[in-house]
Design goal:
The chain is of the alpha+beta class. The chain is built from 6 helices and 9 strands, in the order E-E-H-E-E-E-H-H-E-H-E-H-H-E-E. The strands form 3 sheets. Strands 6-7-8-9 form a 4-stranded antiparallel sheet, with helices on one face. A hairpin with a 3-residue loop joins strand 4 and strand 5. Helix 1 crosses helix 2 and helix 3 packs across helix 6.
Length: 230
C-alpha cells in the first residue's frame, strides 16, 4: 500500500499540484527527489527529500480545497449509485420472461410475445403467409437483458490503467494504480451510476434477447411435439 495523506495517494496529490501550478518539475536527485512548482496562488515551491515528503509538503496548501472537492464528488457518486441500484431493482422486480419462435429452430427473429398463445397465433399467421405447408415451429421463453448486465466493474478499468502505465513506466509503474478495496468499490458504483444515467438519457437498450427452454409445436393444433414424434 502506498503513502496516503488524509486519504489522498501520491498520484492524486501530484495531480492536484499540477492542476494548480503553471510549472511543475519532479526529478530524482542524490538524496531523494526534487520537486519544483510555480503557481499564482502559492508562488514558488522547491524541496528535496523523500518522494512522499516533498509531494505532501507541496500539497498541504491545497488540502482543504481538495477535501471539499472530494466530498462534493462523493456526494454526486452516491446519488448516481443510488439511481443505478434503483434502476436495477426495478428491472429485477418485474417479470421479463417473454416468448418467441423460429421456423428453423435457429433464427428467432419474429419478435417477442407476452404469452405462448400470442406467439402460436402469430406463427400460425406467418405460416399462412409463407404458403409453403409449414406446420411446426420451435417456441421458447426469452429474456431481454438489461444494460446493467454489460457494465464494467472497477477492476476492468484499473487493469487497463495498469497495463498502460506499465507500457510507459516499466517496473516503476508496477504499483499503479494503488487503489484500496473501498476505492475500487467506489469506482464500480460510480461507473454503474454514470452508465445507467447515460443509457437512460440516450435511450440505449439491448436490441436482442436470450432464448431458453425451447419446445417444438404443431402450429395448427397448438400441441407440443415430443422429440420422438419429430
Amino acid at each position: 500500500m502506498g503513502l496516503s495523506f488524509y486519504g489522498f495517494c501520491i498520484h492524486t496529490m501530484l495531480t492536484v499540484i499540477k492542476k494548480k501550478s503553471s510549472d511543475v518539475k519532479l526529478e530524482a536527485v542524490d538524496g531523494g527527489w526534487r520537486l519544483y512548482a510555480l503557481s499564482e496562488e502559492q508562488g514558488e515551491f522547491e524541496l528535496t527529500g523523500p518522494l512522499g515528503y516533498v509531494i505532501t509538503q507541496a500539497f498541504k496548501p491545497y488540502l482543504k480545497e481538495a477535501q471539499a472537492e472530494r466530498e462534493e464528488l462523493q456526494a454526486s457518486l452516491e446519488v448516481l449509485a443510488t439511481e443505478a441500484k434503483d434502476s436495477l431493482h426495478s428491472s429485477n422486480s418485474k417479470d421479463d420472461k417473454k416468448w418467441t419462435y423460429s421456423f428453423d429452430g435457429e433464427k428467432f427473429h419474429h419478435g417477442t410475445f407476452d404469452s405462448l398463445d400470442d406467439a402460436l397465433a402469430d406463427a400460425q399467421m406467418e405460416a399462412l403467409a409463407l404458403d409453403d405447408n409449414t406446420t411446426t415451429a420451435v417456441f421458447g421463453t426469452c429474456t431481454e437483458p438489461s444494460n446493467e448486465s454489460f457494465f464494467p466493474d472497477s477492476d476492468e478499468i484499473t487493469n487497463y490503467m495498469a497495463c498502460q502505465a506499465e507500457d510507459e513506466g516499466g517496473e516503476y509503474a508496477l504499483d499503479y494504480p494503488d487503489a484500496s478495496e473501498e476505492a475500487e468499490l467506489e469506482l464500480s458504483n460510480a461507473l454503474h451510476g454514470l452508465l445507467s444515467w447515460w443509457c437512460k438519457k440516450h435511450e440505449i437498450t439491448p436490441n436482442f434477447f436470450n432464448v431458453e427452454k425451447t419446445q417444438k409445436y404443431d402450429i395448427n393444433t397448438w400441441q407440443p411435439i415430443e422429440e420422438s414424434e419429430a
